């Protein structure tokens, strides 16, 4: 698919996401009734996910687990407005020879989108959760330009403590769970704690001669450690990569995001939000922006000021 075709196809995700529940049901009756019934009536008792194959807006097949990826199952993509804007930005800015690093890949949604665009480039995906990694692995096994790692990305190489939630809340898997203490769901869910291997982006890129063009980071409160571990990559490299980082609203305990923002600013990066069209709008006050538009989170794009 060309970029224009991908943009047009992504619009279908946005269209379905904007529908009310009745319209969504009419759009795909069998899929809607099956997924919603399972999420609301079966999963609360069985606590067991269903692994199923679906198709993304770009026609790529993708294996997902329900109920975690109900939005992908019903719309063909991640349906939150911030994820739609991010997909649009990647489609418009990744080139056929680009190198894309996906930190916190989950099942591989953005890795799959990138792999289709960077036909002559590479995608490197990091996912620390063993359950999510197993599905990620199934999604990219036959894709030659994607390499995956069952590791956390951190400031060093020491093992770190990682908390893995049930499937419904698997996108909240994190090293930092205190941010969820005021959430109703957290009080009823006991995460599985484990120690996992980690690596820094600077070490990984240096050891493997990787020169990334875009780095996407979605690590639920560990953003500062990822950025600290990328210092050499983001300060010494002749070509500074674009960094896209999920940034949480202040009431979600966003200290890690503020620290990462501060470091990137010190290292010569400017911060930008992504418009609905997938273009960048400069924004220095991210907390104020999130509060103004009542956003729980958004993907912020950091670009070298000298570009």
The strands making up the biggest β-sheet line up spatially as 5-4-3-10-11-14-12-13
Assembly level: single chain
Termini separation comes to 29 Å
Over all CA atoms, what is the radius of gyration? 19 Å
Order of helices and strands: HHHEEHHEHEHEEEHEEHEHHEHEEHE
- Discrete helix count: 13
Structure notes:
- The protein is of the alpha/beta class and 307 residues long.
- Helices cover 39% and strands 22% of the residues.
- The strands form 4 sheets. Strands 5-4-3-10-11-14-12-13 form an 8-stranded mixed β-sheet, with helices on both faces. A two-stranded antiparallel ribbon has the order 1-2.
- β1 (50-55) and β2 (61-66) form a beta hairpin.
- α1 (3-17) runs antiparallel to α5 (81-93).
- The longest helix is centred in the N-terminal third of the chain and has 18 residues, at 29-46.
- It is globular and about 55 Å long.
List keywords for this structure.
307 residues, two-stranded antiparallel sheet, 22% strand
Quick gist of this model?
The protein is an alpha/beta fold. The protein has 13 helices and 14 strands.
Walk me through the topology:
Elements: H1 3-17, H2 21-27, H3 29-46, E1 50-55, E2 61-66, H4 70-75, H5 81-93, E3 99-103, H6 109-117, E4 122-126, H7 130-140, E5 146-149, E6 152-153, E7 160-164, H8 184-188, E8 192-196, E9 198-199, H9 201-207, E10 214-217, H10 223-228, H11 231-235, E11 242-248, H12 255-266, E12 269-274, E13 280-282, H13 286-292, E14 297-304
Helix pairs in contact: 1-5, 2-3
């Amino acid at each position: 698919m060309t970029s224009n075709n991908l943009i047009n196809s992504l619009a279908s995700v946005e269209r379905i996401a904007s529908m009310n529940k009745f319209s969504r049901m009419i759009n795909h009756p069998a899929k809607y009734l099956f997924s919603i019934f399972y999420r609301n009536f079966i999963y609360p008792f069985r606590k067991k996910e269903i692994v199923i194959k679906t198709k993304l807006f770009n026609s790529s097949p993708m294996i997902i687990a329900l109920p975690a990826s109900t939005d992908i199952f019903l719309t063909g993509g991640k349906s939150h407005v911030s994820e739609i804007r991010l997909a649009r930005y990647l489609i418009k800015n990744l080139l056929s020879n680009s190198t894309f690093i996906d930190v916190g890949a989950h099942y591989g949604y953005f890795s799959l989108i990138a792999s289709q665009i960077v036909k002559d480039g590479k995608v490197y995906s990091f996912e620390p959760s063993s359950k999510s990694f197993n599905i990620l692995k199934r999604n990219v096994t036959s894709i030659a330009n994607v390499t995956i790692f069952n590791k956390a990305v951190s400031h060093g190489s020491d093992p770190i403590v990682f908390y893995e939630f049930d499937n419904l809340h698997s996108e909240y898997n994190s090293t930092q769970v205190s941010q969820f203490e005021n959430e109703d769901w957290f009080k009823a869910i006991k995460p599985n704690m484990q120690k996992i291997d980690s690596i820094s982006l600077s070490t990984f890129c240096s050891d493997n001669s990787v020169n990334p063009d875009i780095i996407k980071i979605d690590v639920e409160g560990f953003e500062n450690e990822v950025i600290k571990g990328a210092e050499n990559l983001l300060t010494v490299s002749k070509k500074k990569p674009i960094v896209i980082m999920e940034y949480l609203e202040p009431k979600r305990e966003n200290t890690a995001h503020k620290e990462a923002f501060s470091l990137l600013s010190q290292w010569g990066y400017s911060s930008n939000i992504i418009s609905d069209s997938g273009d960048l709008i400069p924004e220095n006050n991210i907390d104020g922006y999130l509060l103004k538009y009542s956003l729980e989170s958004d993907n912020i794009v950091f670009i070298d000021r000298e570009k």
